[in-house]
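Hi there,

I know you've been waiting on this one. I reran it after we fixed the sequence typo, so this is the corrected version. Both the input and the resulting structure follow.
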Amino acid sequence: MRHLLRRGTLFAVVALTASAVQFTSPAVAAPAPAAAAPCGPLDVAFVLDDTGSMGGAIANLKTGINAIVNDVVTASGGDYRLGLVTFKDNVTVHNNLAPGNAAAVTSYVTNTLAASAGSAEPEASDEALNTVVNNLPAAGRPQNVDFSGAWRSNAMKFVVLVTDARPGGFDNVHAAVDVANAAQRADDALGKGIKISPVYVPTSTTYSSVITPIMQDYATTTGGVSTQTTSTGAGTADAIRKLLSDCRQTDVVIRDQVTDTGAEPNPNGTVWNSPDIKVCPTAADCAGIQPVVGATNVVHVRLNNASAPSTGTLKVYRTPAGGGTTWNNATNGDWVYIGEQSLTVPTGGTVAKIPWANIPGPGHFCLLARWVSATDPMTFAEGPNTAQNTRNNNNIAWKNLQTVRGKVFEPVRSWFTLGNATEREVKTDLVLTGERPVAGAVVIDLGPRLFERWRAGGGQAVGVKQVGETAFQLDPKRSALLGVPLLPGERFTTELTFTPEAPGEYLTNLVQFVEGEDHGGVAYQVITDRG
């Protein structure tokens, strides 16, 4: 279940001899989440219509802002970020999302916020949401400064929109394009796990039949709640307090391995061979295939759900097969975006199916799946280390099973990319273990640059024999190359060659360790026929 903490088991190489590679479990403390609070970490952005007709609502908000902000601080256990944006036919950013900024937001609302001007209805609510949801810069927009505050992956995320007007973009005209723009903002928020909870202030009922469905779409799409006040704006502050108390939680799980129970962090070792991720030729179920270069395949991801129905977005990424991959919430780090599917996962779970078009060569990839939901944020904030993010959060999973096929005595190739996902120089070990060892030769070619790194790190190895200028034959049962120094962010691709001497199906794991911790690996399924 979510927030269940157990000590993780992280494999480490502690003794290496010519005959064996031994593993043990070091005492590694599991990271602890923020102190218990009703909601946990909260990121809240207020998007307020401050045109002249909003005087009553703004006056009501002024009287209630202290209670609203105190609610956020208390419900988050002090782990919060607030943002404040106002709009007319333009957008004004007053406060970016920033930690501990309750006083600044409260002060602005209490002492400065005022209803004034506005060149008649409609207003730029859709573009104000665009600014906040998508962290837009000011350049090229009627916007004073960038909205540069970061939405955190481990926070429940709210946008509270307060307005009495139809969305009109920046041209002060309401048209079909503005309805579409508003709907797109709801879709954007859904994809980022942000709830939009609108408060409609019907100062005039002339356009209520148009405004109400738009407000409801914001809420329905993103999992928020739509509220309406009186025509005078009375009750605006109370409505906002009620919206922000909606901290219901769900818990969708993508398993790291068959025995994964959803505990966070995962205490059970390997986090790069998820049984819930596979590639199929079509949307029809299959046993799983190697991606077909140049074709369109479909990534199938099973989403397990023992909680209430959960609405969110499943996002899938790829990177060359290997370990030590970096993650970045803004740029995706070493991972290339494949696609996404927004859906509601019923109790019991379902399978998301995401097309993967024009698969590039050579067709050997790691796949990463991330479930992004307003009601199921990451328990632990994501950092640069993909393996650690996956271990910590049960709505991230990593799949790295590669199938290589060939004939007896004919070499078949694959690849392994190792990297440094930390923010410091490290020494890394490459450890091969054969679950069903290849009956024949396994050779790894480091290439000139990585070979020199290995030599600079001391040139240590176990169960290997040099067979070329930069190549080594590996003991298919257990072998290792040790102490390879890597700088932060570096990645090197090695070439593996399997030459089986008997037909059969073999399974070999090649894993990258950094200071005894598993930083990712590949399971190579080698299938050989007689020919």
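Quick highlight: The first strand starts at residue 12 and ends at 16.

Best,
R. S.
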